[in-house]
Amino acid sequence: MTDEKFVRDRITGLRLKKGVSEYKMSYDLGHSRGYVYNISSGKALPPMKEFFAICDYFGITPAQFFDEGNDCPNLISEALEGLKRLEESDVLLVLEVINRLKK
């Protein structure tokens, strides 16, 4: 998969998960209605400043954006933040549940 295609597909996937239209996302980011369409269709790529704004829009970091194996980066972030506030014994319980679910 080319890097440009990955960026387009990732933005589209995250947008669909968030449940917003291309028009709404464009408007929310302060652009004309066709802004996200142009990215999704391959006519344009966002400049770096806009890429950071897109990551903020989805509530993720750039590293999470490029993590191909992470289909729900904002949920993973939220889970990690929650885990950080737990005592070690509770983290071990959560890990046990995760391992059981993976089987």
Taken together, the total number of domains comes to 2
Provide the low-confidence segments as ranges: none
The tally of helices reads: 7
Task: Quote the distance from N terminus to C terminus.
Answer: 30 Å
Indicate the mean pLDDT: 91
Categorize the overall geometry: elongated
| Main β sheet profile | none
Work out the number of β strands.
Answer: 0
Can you characterise this structure?
The chain is mainly α and 103 residues long. It has 2 domains: 1-68, Orthogonal Bundle (434 Repressor (Amino-terminal Domain)); 72-103. The protein is 69% helix and 0% strand. The protein contains 7 helices and no strands. The chain is elongated, with a radius of gyration of 17 Å. The two termini are 30 Å apart. The model has no long low-confidence stretch (mean pLDDT 91).
Keywords:
mainly alpha, 434 Repressor (Amino-terminal Domain), 7 helices, elongated
What's this, in brief?
By secondary structure, the chain is mostly helical. It has helices at 3-18, 22-28, 35-40, 48-58, 62-65, 73-84, 88-102. The chain has seven helices and no strands.
Give the SSE map.
Layout: H1 3-18, H2 22-28, H3 35-40, H4 48-58, H5 62-65, H6 73-84, H7 88-102
